[in-house]
What we know:
The structure holds 2 protein chains of 2 kinds.
Chain A: H1 2-32, H2 35-68, H3 82-89, H4 91-123, H5 127-138, H6 145-156, H7 168-175, H8 191-218, H9 221-229, H10 234-245, H11 247-262, H12 266-271, H13 281-291, H14 295-326
Helix pairs in contact in A: 1-2, 2-14, 4-5, 4-8, 4-11, 5-8, 8-11, 9-10, 11-14, 13-14
Chain B: H1 2-26, E1 39-44, H2 48-64, E2 68-73, H3 77-86, E3 93-96, H4 99-107, H5 120-126, E4 136-137, E5 140-141, E6 143-150, E7 153-157, H6 158-164, H7 172-184, H8 202-225, H9 234-248, H10 257-260, E8 282-283, H11 296-300, H12 302-305, E9 306-310, E10 320-330, H13 336-345, H14 348-354, H15 375-385, E11 389-392, H16 394-397, H17 400-415, H18 421-431
Amino acid sequence: MLIKIINAVLAVLGGVGGAILIFFVLNKLAEVLPGKWEDRVKPYLFLLPAFLAIALYLVYPTVQTVLYSFANSTSTAFVGFSNYGDLLTSKDFQSTLFNTLLWIIVVPTGTIVLGLLIATLADRLRPRGEKTAKTLIFLPMAIGAVGAGAIWRFVYASNPPGQKQIGLLNGVVTGFGGDPVNWLQLSTGRVNSFLLMVMLLWAQAGFAMVLLSAAIKGVPTETLEAARLDGAGEGSIFFRIVVPQIRTTLITVFITVLIGVLKTFDIVYVMTNGLYNTNVVAVDFYNQLFTNQNAGYAAAIVVMLMVVIIPVMAYQIRQFRAEEAAR
Amino acid sequence: MRIRSAGRFAVTAGAVALLTAGCLSSGSSSGGGGNTSNSIELMYGFTGNQDKDFQKVVKAWADKNDVTIKFSPTPDFNNLINTKVAGNQLPDIAFFPQPGIMASIAKQGKLADLSSVLDTADLKANFVPGALEAGQVDGKQYAVLASANIKSIVYYPKKAAQAAGVAAPQTLDELMALSQKIKATGATPWCFGIENGPATGWPATDWVENLMLIDYGSDVYNQWVQHKIAFNDPKVLAVTDQIDKLLLADGQTNGGRKAIASNNFGTAGNVMFNTPPGCYMYRQGNFLAQPGFFPKNVLADLDNQLGVFPMPGKTADSHPVLGGGDMAGLFSADNDAAKKTMKYLSSAEFGNSMAPLGWYLSARKDVDASKYPSKTAQQFADITSKGTEFVFDGSDQMPGAVGSGSFWKEMVAWISGQETAKQALDNIEASWPK
């Protein structure tokens, strides 16, 4: 144990010390150069370690993954586009893509709507009521997805008919004299996927609420008063005055949740592992790589995911820049 | 300025030096290949109480025999052993939970041929037929089943079953008839649950494997497992038909077909101890009799409450056993301490010291049955040693894409009614890696 603690301390010291050492050496190198050149080269030299780190930890794996996506399951021979072809023509993967699409549409939108609703309503409460309500709604954020799975299992659990139902929903259903329902197996109309989305909404609503609430409070009261004096109703004040002024926050929340949704893995893995037509891209990736040990399919899935995420990221960065410029 | 910088430099350099030194000193690794000391590393996949029990027994032996053992339990054995083999960081002895991984490592030439280390005549005479073969690759013995488990057993509520006149069936036909007889009285014959979080579906694969073994014997079973006959062979379809009749038809299973996929395998059988029993029979592995599954009052009075009979064979004198276990393989062929330990792990002496623990089951017939702590455990040992052929769990031996992928998933899809049995078997066949 002691040796581990010493190692940890040394690692921290060594990491920081190492960084200082590198920049010290780079600085010395730059100082060797004559006058003007020192100033010209220095910024690039100082950027070099960061660039190298990005190249090593981001660019290299990305390129490697793209390459692997054109190779066979053990990455020993190239197979052209057949991984992509196999996946896109397989019924299972199509269903997985469809589910992912549903998640992308429903969860960010739902999070925004819920977050906005809660933020607006909480805003009208007295300070203590607002604090309590917000804390309660924010609480699930602190619970990991696997923990959330354990909790929601007790909501959706289903025992054979005639036995005691420990699941909340089935407790209600059987309380009214109905037969227990296998909630997570209801694949008609993707009901089970929606039930899983509810879990993510439950976990994310607090996050949206906090950001949106801050934005709403930042809306200048003058604009609201002016609108009221002009005779606008509460509805049009909200949609025409408040929403346009918190647009950037709305977009940030939407995109953050969207990226989170594309990566959704734990909730689906813990609850169904993609059974009963609830599979999503990230779970499929995991199963292809670790269960089926098919590196080709797994890489192809990741590349497709990346292709989808890149425009979203680009948009977010542009948005961020526009916001910075406006300040 | 210059002096201060130099001072900082010295401090940094010192820290870096210390850091490397510190890291080196903590990673003491003994390992296969070239390890000649009497300090050896034992790697295995069981953790928790089993790990504690095992260490206690083996350490007691090692202390007396001048061997120092470093125990390396890991819950992620299969991945870790592959990584270690790839990086040539071998343990001296490893317990393989799955023959497939052992075989692929043996084929790379990393495992020692045990014929020069162990007394093969003794092994042949005392191991259950089939148990040794599981550790063979191309006719050479690379691993020995040091710890066994069996899955072809049926649990029943002893008192209720006696009252209802239920007796252990001798053949598969008798089992079918017994099931009909129980149903005719208005009761439910079977319990069945296959829910296990992300691993949902595996208990259904055990049923298919068990019936494949009973119906066609170990040869056909092994061919099927090794994909020498197609996964969707008509023989397999016949088995799913049997399961349909025995378990999925109306009134055969507690809660009906729809409840199976959401019923947890660990507790699905517990309703058999209700009055009247929720079911009369539950087929599951011998691990189920350990704490954590059956109700506490049953565990406290195990021998009186819980009855056990083996899944019968096709005929009264065939007793095929479906099981599994941990197979010990030797990496360090030249290390005397490792060889000595390997001998011990495959001996009856080891079995006799492990038997009292309760969870342990030996694949050796000469382990003293009275050493097992309960009647139930003795029965497991009896079923194992009377086995006419012992085969390893098939899904554990199939490629991961099937054995813990499509086989699980398609069974769930079939049992929950999303697919027909034919579709499920066809999908599994299509998913077999080429």
